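Morning. Coffee machine broken again, so started the prediction first thing and wrote up yesterday's gels while waiting. Chain of 210 residues, entered below exactly as on the submission form.
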Amino acid sequence: MASLDAWLLSPALHDYLAILKGARNGFVYGVKVRFPHALIMAVLFGRGDWKTRCAVIYRATKQHALNLAKFVSLYKVLMLLQNKANGGKERGADTFIAGLIGGYVVFGDRTAVNEQIVLYVVSRVIAAFLPRAGAPYSKAPLPNREAIARPVPPNARYFSVFAALSWGTVMWLFKNRSEGIQPGMFNSMTYLYRDSEVWKDLRTLLWHNT
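Came back before lunch.
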């Protein structure tokens, strides 16, 4: 086991194993975030019998977890490729390019889950460009608003571009202007992209984060 741990800690393998751990963290985080949300929505607003509701919970959780795993691993692969193509140096636009491509490939398909994730991301992107207050961050409840007209989903083609730009921008912000990112999302992104760069042995590579 000691020799395996030494192999896992080899600097030559770090960037490649970080892709694996990034996929692991993305999957785990997706399950943690989506499962309780889907469960509550099924209990409060679900239709049909419990077999049908459980199937909806499973599909939503699976899509959220797998898409996050795909995005994190694809993002890390693209960052690694750009790094190697540039002689081992990271350029300022690398995070945006990797996020842009990853966002289009993984989240460009308009589904209910993808739409929720992209809208969550873009709201944080926009908020990050607002001037920062000197006082500690506070969370004020949003007023309840009733929709009068029936909601219409966005055009699928434009949504793909919207998803790509949102993810490209948020990855650039996380790397270069992380102080502007909302705390909840900052913690989420730290878990997905920074924590996946660190492990001590096989257990902390695949089973437990630290």
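The mean pLDDT is 87. Going to sketch it on the whiteboard this afternoon.
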